[in-house]
Amino acid sequence: MIFEGGGQGPMAPDPSLNNHHKGDHMERVLLSHGAGGREMVALIERVFLAKYRAPGFTGDDSAILNFGSQALAFTTDSFVVDPIFFPGGDIGRLAVAGTVNDLLTAGARPLALSASFIIEEGFKIATLTAIAASMRQAADEGRVAIVTGDTKVVPKGAADKLFITTAGLGAILKPGVSGAAAVAGDKIILTGSVGDHGTAVMLARENLLQGEAIISDVAPLTELVLALLEAGCEIHAMRDPTRGGIAAALNEIARQSQVSLEIDEARIPVKPGVTAACEALGLEVFQVANEGKMLIFVAPEDAARALDLVKANPYGREARLIGEVKASPPGRVQVRTTIGTARILDMPSGELLPRIC
Amino acid sequence: MKFIDEFRDRELVQNLARRLGQLAWGPATLMEVCGTHTMAAARFGLKTLLPPPVKLISGPGCPVCVTAQEDLDAFLALGRQPHIILASFGDMLRVPGTHTSLERTRAQGADVRVVYSPLDAVDLAKQETAKTVVFFGVGFETTMPATAMAIKLAAAEGLDNFLVFCVHKTMPAALRALLAGGEVRVSGLLLPGHVTTIIGAQAYDFISQEFGVPGAVAGFEPVDMLLGIESLLRQISQGQVFIDNVYPRAVQAQPNPRAQKLLSEVFAPDDAQWRGLGQIPGSGVKIQERYAAFDARARFPEIWAELAPPPPSPCRCGEILRGVLTPKQCPQFDKGCNPSQPLGPCMVSSEGACAAAFRYER
Question: Is B99 at the interface with chain A, CB within 8 A?
Answer without folding.
Answer: yes
